[in-house]
Amino acid sequence: MEMWNNRKIAIGSTNPAKIQAVELAFAALSIAVEIVPVDVPSGVSPQPQTDTETLQGARNRAQAALQQGQADVGIGLEGGIQRTEWGMFLCNWACAITTSGQEGLGGGLRLPLPYDIAIELDKGRELGDVIDAWAGRHGVRKQEGTIGILTQGAVRRADMFRDALLCALAPLMHR
Ligand SMILES: O=P(O)(O)OP(=O)(O)OP(=O)(O)OC[C@H]1O[C@@H](n2cnc3c(O)ncnc32)[C@H](O)[C@@H]1O
Ligand SMILES: [Mg+2]
């Protein structure tokens, strides 16, 4: 992994939970990097409604971060929802793109959303606002996230995005 040390990594978000996920991922790989948050558009709806739309948001952010951050690697992390016959799930995707055009994708954990949250999302509201009201908190999206609230803190948003990012980096790491 030596070749990855001291590279400039641009993350396409200024959300602290996502920035922490990038820090955790490279720490887990024992790689020292410079992490630069850049505010970029996701290119998808503010509340992605499908797995594919969420994945595309991560790809769009990674590409925009790479260019805007003038980095070696651009990273996009996107959260969304996915409706299934078993109910509505929170989903997350990570994408990493290098200056040579290599692209890796990684999927995060799926979490079933309680019915009273799902019906609010079906009204077109954003999960960030809904979970704040549901939990009586403010800014959950920048802290432990919905997964943190619903798993009693056992799995935080940064952990979920860390693992999805490690999966996205895998294809870029092996020979
Ligand atoms: O600043 P950015 O990077 O946009 O961070 P965000 O918290 O808005 O996160 P996303 O855009 O990736 O998520 C898309 C929408 O889903 C919501 N969301 C996704 N996962 C969430 C979580 O774990 N907790 C709270 N809101 C979440 C969030 O409110 C967004 O409106
Ligand atoms: Mg957002």
TrEMBL record:
Mg(2+) binds at Q70. The keyword Protein biosynthesis does not apply. The keyword Oxidoreductase does not apply. Its cofactor is Mg(2+); Mn(2+). It comes from the Bacteria. Belongs to the YjjX NTPase family. This is Probable inosine/xanthosine triphosphatase.
